[in-house]
Design a protein that fits this description.
By secondary structure, the protein is of the alpha/beta class. The protein is 31% helix and 28% strand. It has a seven-stranded mixed beta sheet, sandwiched between helices. The protein has a three-stranded antiparallel beta sheet with strand order 6-7-8.
């Protein structure tokens, strides 16, 4: 049986590009460039790359060692189509982030906008994604990812947040129910796929608190771990994480 995230992305590549959370690509890539000191030889792995928006933007800026992986064939096909249109050379591959085939190959792994991590149905599977991303990195490698901030639902209604953020024509998250014992939000996702079919999925996502993320990364051997508030399209090391941030930005180095 398909999981909700597999069903959502099997025919959603065109509609995906209209989602509000995909609109921060330029600013997010500005931040990635700063973090790697604008070194265009940096070998970058984009995990849960979707339609390849970050990889494509970096390729346009002259980065040539880019690999994007995703579980969804339709998203990857769209990524390849858009890259070809702009004559960009990016190695897009269908891979499961829980079982990546790379070892000690990349200088940087990015996993942005819940690109796999935090979507999985068990904590163990989410940890496998972090473990595989770590295995793919070289000895002094760095990982940059975003994940849902577990401090937010303790002070705010997730339902109200989605209601205020969602616009017509985008996927709608409804009936959110946050479980304090598991830090999972169970909700109903309503959306229209690229063929115009209206669909409803029972979804659940894992929220993490900073101390959990720090512990998980320490257990994987990261020495330098920093966590900030994640502002859409405006990632910055100056944004201290607060209970107002829906997402957190994690930067860790081996």
């Amino acid at each position: 049986m398909k999981q909700w995230y597999e069903s959502l992305f099997e025919n959603y590549a065109l509609k995906y590009e209209n989602e509000i959370f995909t609109k921060g690509t330029i600013g997010e890539c500005d931040f990635i460039e700063q973090e790697i000191n604008y070194n265009q030889r940096t070998k970058i792995l984009d995990i849960g790359c979707g339609t390849g928006r970050h990889s494509r933007e970096l390729a346009k800026r002259g980065y040539q060692n880019l690999t994007g992986v995703d579980l969804s064939e339709s998203m990857l096909n769209r990524a390849k189509e858009l890259a070809a249109k702009d004559n960009l050379k990016i190695n897009f591959q269908k891979q499961d982030a829980r079982a990546l085939t790379f070892t000690n190959e990349f200088d940087l792994a990015i996993m942005l906008c819940e690109g796999g991590f935090s979507l999985m149905e068990t904590d163990e599977m989410n940890f496998e994604i972090l473990k595989n991303a770590t295995k793919a990195l070289k000895d002094k490698g760095k990982i940059i990812f975003t994940t849902l901030n577990g401090l937010f639902p303790m002070f705010h209604s997730v339902n109200e947040f989605y209601e205020s953020a969602q616009k017509e024509g985008q996927s709608q998250c409804k009936e959110c129910s946050f479980d304090l014992m598991t830090f999972r939000d169970h909700n109903t996702t309503e959306f229209e796929d690229d063929s115009g079919n209206k669909k409803t999925l029972d979804s659940n996502e894992r929220y993490y608190v900073p101390s959990e993320i720090t512990w998980l990364l320490k257990s994987l051997g990261y020495k330098n771990i920093n966590i900030f508030g994640a502002k859409l399209g405006a990632f910055s090391r100056n944004d201290k994480l607060t209970t107002e941030d829906f997402e957190m930005l994690v930067i860790a180095e081996k």
